[in-house]
Specification:
GO terms for molecular function: kinase activity; methylisocitrate lyase activity. The structure is a single chain. With 222 residues, the chain is mainly α. The chain has two domains: 157 residues, TIM Barrel, CATH 3.20.20.60; 46 residues, no CATH class. The chain has ten helices and five strands; from the N terminus they run ααβαβααβαβαβααα. Helix 2 runs parallel beside helix 3.
Length: 222
């Protein structure tokens, strides 16, 4: 008996309406404020790397439609952000076409990822006005650095900094480990001991909950 072959496409199917709907429902139930629905293929990559590929516009709009229907069904005010990464593969005009179509389906906000210039970013705001656009600012990424002040002047309504904590964390950890290697200590500042770090992570809330419930876990203090 001949055994049917399994193609790569059979395994790596694109996210369909059911997957999108389920994800949106879980976001709503978790109290998430907003989310992106994008048009990259399932084997996606960071928006600031080369070689991105996107699905066709019909597939993209199916995702947007499924998200909007789920949002309406659950009567949620969660913010549906329609994102496109089509700039590398298909150019600016196709991005605008996709975002306008998503807007017509009821997406709340648009996101064109990977602007190549400030002029292009400004043009996108104007071409899609008065629909609000989100700017994803990644310093030293594929696009220009745009400050919060510049973004506001351009007319962007939301701005996120995807690497705002990752890059500083990397630099801080790297510097600490280099000092450990050369000086034999990490060099943690005075006052930033274990208790302080635990307090930042919610230690006192744990103490309060235990004490109010009549527990004895913190009878001897912390």
């Amino acid at each position: 008996m001949e055994v049917p072959s399994i193609r790569k496409k059979d395994i790596l199917t694109e996210p369909g309406p059911l997957m999108v709907s389920k994800s949106v429902q879980q976001y709503i139930q978790a109290g998430v404020a907003g989310f992106h629905i994008e048009d990259q293929i399932q084997n996606k990559r960071c928006g600031h790397l080369a070689g991105k590929k996107v699905v066709d516009i019909d597939e993209y709009l199916t995702r947007i439609r499924a998200a909007k229907l789920t949002k309406d069904r659950l009567r949620s005010d969660i913010v549906l952000i329609a994102r496109t990464d089509a700039l590398q593969q298909h150019g600016y005009d196709e991005c605008i076409r996709r975002l306008k179509a998503a807007r017509e389906l009821g997406a709340d906000v648009g996101l064109l990822e990977g602007f190549t210039s400030k002029e292009q970013a400004q043009r996108a705001v104007e071409d899609l006005a008065p629909w609000p656009l989100l700017l994803n600012m990644v310093e030293n990424g594929a696009g220009p650095v745009i400050t919060t002040q510049e973004a506001q002047a351009m007319g962007f309504r939301i701005m996120i900094f995807s690497f705002a904590s990752l890059a500083p964390a990397y630099l801080g950890i790297r510097a600490a480990l280099q000092r450990l290697k050369t000086d034999g200590v990490v060099g943690t500042p005075d006052g930033l001991g274990p208790k302080k770090l635990f307090e930042i992570c919610g230690l006192m809330d744990s103490v309060r909950i235990d004490t109010e419930a009549g527990g004895s876990g913190f009878t001897n203090g912390v």
